[in-house]
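[User] At your convenience, examine this fold.
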Amino acid sequence: MLHNEQQISEFKSKSGLARIMKASVYSVQGLKHAWRSEHAFRQELMVSIPALCVAALLPVSILEKLALVFVLAFVLAVELLNSAIEAVVDRISLERHPLSKNAKDLGSAAVFVSVIVAALTWAAILAPVVLG
């Protein structure tokens, strides 16, 4: 292999509608796995579902409703990425290693930041509604 050539995985998808369909199937499989195996994802989803109902009923602008929905989806997406990082680290080795700890801690920190952003967004939008 030449120095500037990239090696391409045999698992790399092709283009077209078939790729979109396969990607959708893989995404649903990932969501099912997260629901079955990831406690934090389930907890965050169980908070998000009633919160979505509240967001729909709030007397706020459509952009504020979208912000409330977006930050909930953002938390779930970051949680999924954190779970993916943890799975890759565990796939490489289950032994304790400082770099493995760093990767997992950084993923957890990303989830924490997303939750803080969501909480602040909800507080900023709800405060004028609740306080009148």
